[in-house]
Structures are given as structure tokens and as C-alpha cells.
């Protein structure tokens, strides 16, 4: 140890060496440590103490070297006169201008303008709301019975096949296709009933006319249905009205 040095640094990681020793062996190592730091030049009592003290001794020597270097620097600084004195000439800082709490009033400027009585100016800052025009479907047959059957078909598609029109454009496309394929209202109503009865996803014409044994006449001017079929259509329409009400 250095002369007049009254302390040393013990490190926490030394515990690993002490934990591997018995109490008697650890006591021997501690006594050997304190004899060493007090410059008693002790001899290791046994080989185990000597081996365990080697890393401790190396740490103590490194700390002692750092301590000696620190002392030498302090001696050299003392020879140079110690800490340098503050300069006698103190540079005075420039005084800042005083702060005015009340700012000066701004120069007033008067502006005059003349507007003729005939001139009129209107300003409207409110945004005009653009009303969206309601788009209505164009039906190939402008009758209440066709519209009701078409709505029944849409509900059937949604319930049975989980299909729903995403926009009016797709719905209008179907109505346009109906207008091309069917010439009368009764034909499309018959096709809707036929398709729903068979669980079809689309609208298909029946292979045979449903005329209940009565005559069926398909001429160039259009399709003629029997009175019994017409009564059936009217009954279905009336029942649909009752359900909607």
C-alpha cells in the first residue's frame, strides 16, 4: 500500500470467491487481505488462500497505480502555482436598452372611399349546400303490380341467396334487361313466380305456359292470357298490398 493511505476499494464481485469457501477458509482470506493492505507483507497460510487472493491482489495494485498517478498530477499542479487566478480586468458587458412596457401607439391612417349609390355589392360567406338529385328507377312497366312483384323478387334474392343490389345502377341494368326480353307485364310476372318456385337465382321464362288448361295464344301483337290466370294475378297483387299495409 502507499504511504499514509488509509483506505482501499473492495469490489462486490469478490463475493463469488468468498461464497465458494467455508467460514474458516473465508476468515483466513479476509485476515490475509487486511495484512496486505496494511503493508505487513503476509505469507499465505495455505495454497487455497494464495490462489483466491491473486485476483484481489491484482485489483488492489491497479487501484494503487491510479492513486499514485493522481498524486503525481497534484504535485505537478502545485509546482505550477496551483489553480490559475481570475483575470483582474473584467470585461464589462454592454448595457441593454430599457424595456418599455407600454408600446408606442401606431400611426393612424385614415382611408376614405366613395361608392356610387348605383353600385351594389353583395357578399355571402355561407356555403351553399348542394342538393343531390334523387335518382329514381325507370321501370319497363309503370304499374303498381309490376313494381310490387319486382320488390318481392328483390326480397326473395336477399332472403334465399343472400344477394342485395349494391347500387341503383345495377338494379336499373336488370330492369333494362327485363325490357329487352319481356314484351308484356304478365310475362315477367309469370317468369318471376316460376323462378321463385324453383329456387332459381335468376329470372327464367317457364318452359310451358301456366294457363291452367285454357288456351294460350302468342301472336305478333302480344300475349293473351286466360281469365283464370288474370284473376290469379289480381289476387296475388291484392294479397301483396295487404302484407305491405
Secondary structure topology:
Blueprint (H helix, E strand, L loop, with lengths): L14 H5 L3 H15 L9 H33 L64 H18 L6 H14 L3 H13 L19 E3 L2 E3 L2 H18 L1
Antiparallel strand pairs: 1-2
Helix pairs in contact: 2-3, 4-6
Describe the structure.
Among the domains are: 12-79, no CATH class; 144-244, no CATH class. It contains 7 helices and 2 strands; from the N terminus they run ααααααββα. It has helices spanning 15-19, 23-37, 47-79, 144-161, 168-181, 185-197, 227-244, and strands spanning 217-219, 222-224. The protein has a two-stranded antiparallel sheet with strand order 1-2. β1 (217-219) and β2 (222-224) form a beta hairpin. The chain starts with 14 loop residues before the first helix and ends with a helix. The model is unreliable at 119-123 and 213-225 (pLDDT under 50).
Amino acid at each position: 500500500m502507499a504511504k499514509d493511505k488509509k483506505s482501499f476499494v473492495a469490489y462486490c464481485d469478490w463475493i463469488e470467491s468468498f461464497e465458494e469457501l467455508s467460514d474458516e477458509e473465508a476468515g483466513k482470506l479476509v485476515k490475509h487481505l487486511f495484512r496486505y493492505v496494511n503493508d505487513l507483507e503476509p505469507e499465505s497460510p495455505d495454497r487455497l488462500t494464495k490462489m483466491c487472493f491473486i485476483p484481489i491482489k491484482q485489483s488492489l495494485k491497479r487501484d494503487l497505480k491510479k492513486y499514485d498517478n493522481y498524486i503525481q498530477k497534484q504535485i505537478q499542479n502545485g509546482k505550477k502555482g496551483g489553480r490559475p487566478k481570475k483575470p483582474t480586468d473584467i470585461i464589462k458587458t454592454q448595457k441593454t436598452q430599457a424595456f418599455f412596457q407600454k408600446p408606442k401607439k401606431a400611426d393612424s391612417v385614415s382611408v376614405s372611399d366613395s361608392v356610387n349609390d348605383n353600385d351594389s355589392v353583395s357578399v355571402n360567406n355561407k356555403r351553399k349546400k348542394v342538393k343531390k338529385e334523387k335518382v329514381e328507377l325507370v321501370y319497363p312497366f309503370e304499374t303498381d303490380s309490376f313494381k310490387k312483384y319486382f320488390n318481392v323478387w328483390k326480397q326473395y334474392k336477399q332472403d334465399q341467396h343472400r344477394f342485395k343490389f349494391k347500387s341503383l345502377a345495377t338494379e336499373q341494368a336488370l330492369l333494362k334487361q327485363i325490357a329487352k326480353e319481356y314484351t308484356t307485364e304478365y310475362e315477367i310476372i309469370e317468369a318471376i313466380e316460376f323462378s321463385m318456385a324453383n329456387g332459381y337465382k335468376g329470372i327464367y321464362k317457364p318452359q310451358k305456359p301456366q294457363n291452367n288448361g285454357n288456351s294460350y295464344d302468342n301472336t305478333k301483337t302480344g300475349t293473351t292470357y286466360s281469365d283464370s290466370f288474370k284473376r290469379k294475378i289480381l289476387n296475388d297483387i291484392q294479397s301483396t298490398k295487404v302484407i305491405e299495409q
